[in-house]
C-alpha cells in the first residue's frame, strides 16, 4: 500500500511524445515466420537471449516510428548536425600522426625490399655476363692451343671474334647516326647557318676591284643634295673652330 501511495504521488500524466515508452508483445521470428514463445528461449543460451532482445527492440522501433511521423517529430539527424566528439582533437591528432608514421615505415620497408631485389637481380645478371665471358675466353684459348699443337687447322674463333667486334662497331655507329644533333644544335643551324669560312669574307677580289659600275662621284665627294660637304648649303652655317674664334677676338682687340 505504501509503494502504491508513493507511486501515485510522483506519477505524472504526460503525453506519449514526452515519455516515448513502448510495450511490445510477442515478437515474430523472421526465420520461422511465427511468434516466438518465451519458454522456447533458453536464458542460458547467450545467442538466443540476445536475438530475442534485438527482435523485441526492432519491433518497438517499427511501431514507434509511424506514431512519431504522425506527430511530425523528426526522426533523422539533420545534415548540418555537429556533435561533441568522445575524444579530444589533440588525442585524434596523436592517433593520426601514429598512423601516418606507421604508413611511412611500411613504405620505407617496401622500398628497401624493392632495392634489395633489384640489387640481387643486378648481381645475378652481372655474374651471368662474367661467366659467359670467361666461358668464351676459355673456349678460344682451347682452340688456340689445339691449333698450335696441330690438332686442328680451323681458325673459326678468329672469324667469330672479328664478327662480334664489327657488330659492336656497327651498332655504335648506327646509334650515332640515329641520334643526330639535338634540338639546340638544329635551332642554331637554322638561325646562323651551317658554318663555313668567316675570316676574309669581305676582302676585295680582282673582279670586285675592277668593277666600278656602282661608283657615284657625287655621293663619294659629298656633293649630293643634303650633304654637309665643302660645296653644300650647310657648310655656310658651320660654326668656326675654337682657335679660329680666339684669333678673331684677338684681331678685334
Automatic annotation (TrEMBL):
It comes from the Eukaryota. It is found in: Nucleus, Nucleolus. Residues 100-125, 158-253 are annotated as: Disordered. GO terms for biological process: ribosomal large subunit biogenesis; rRNA processing. Keywords: Coiled coil, Nucleus, Ribosome biogenesis. The keyword Coiled coil applies. Residues 210-219 have a biased composition (Polar residues). Required for the processing of the 27S pre-rRNA. Belongs to the EBP2 family. This is Putative rRNA-processing protein EBP2. It comes from Balearica regulorum gibbericeps. The lineage of its organism: Eukaryota, Metazoa, Chordata, Craniata, Vertebrata.
Amino acid at each position: 500500500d505504501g509503494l502504491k501511495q508513493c507511486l501515485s504521488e510522483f506519477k505524472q500524466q504526460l503525453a506519449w511524445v514526452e515519455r516515448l515508452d513502448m510495450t511490445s508483445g510477442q515478437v515474430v521470428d523472421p526465420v520461422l515466420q511465427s511468434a516466438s514463445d518465451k519458454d522456447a528461449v533458453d536464458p542460458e543460451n547467450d545467442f538466443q537471449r540476445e536475438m530475442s532482445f534485438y527482435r523485441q527492440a526492432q519491433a518497438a522501433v517499427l511501431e514507434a516510428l509511424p506514431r512519431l511521423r504522425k506527430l511530425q517529430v523528426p526522426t533523422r539527424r539533420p545534415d548540418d548536425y555537429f556533435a561533441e566528439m568522445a575524444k579530444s582533437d589533440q588525442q585524434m591528432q596523436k592517433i593520426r600522426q601514429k598512423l601516418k608514421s606507421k604508413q611511412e615505415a611500411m613504405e620505407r620497408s617496401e622500398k628497401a625490399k624493392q632495392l634489395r631485389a633489384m640489387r640481387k637481380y643486378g648481381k645475378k645478371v652481372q655474374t651471368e655476363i662474367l661467366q659467359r665471358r670467361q666461358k668464351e675466353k676459355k673456349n678460344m684459348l682451347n682452340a688456340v692451343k689445339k691449333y698450335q699443337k696441330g690438332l686442328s687447322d680451323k681458325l673459326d674463333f678468329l672469324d667469330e671474334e672479328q664478327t662480334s667486334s664489327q657488330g659492336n662497331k656497327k651498332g655504335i655507329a648506327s646509334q650515332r647516326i640515329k641520334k643526330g644533333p639535338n634540338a639546340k644544335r638544329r635551332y642554331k643551324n637554322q638561325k646562323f647557318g651551317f658554318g663555313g669560312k668567316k675570316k676574309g669574307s669581305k676582302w676585295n677580289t680582282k673582279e670586285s676591284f675592277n668593277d666600278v659600275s656602282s661608283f657615284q662621284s657625287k655621293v663619294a665627294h659629298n656633293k649630293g643634295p643634303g650633304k654637309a660637304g665643302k660645296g653644300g648649303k650647310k657648310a655656310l652655317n658651320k660654326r668656326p673652330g675654337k682657335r679660329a674664334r680666339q684669333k678673331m677676338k684677338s684681331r678685334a682687340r
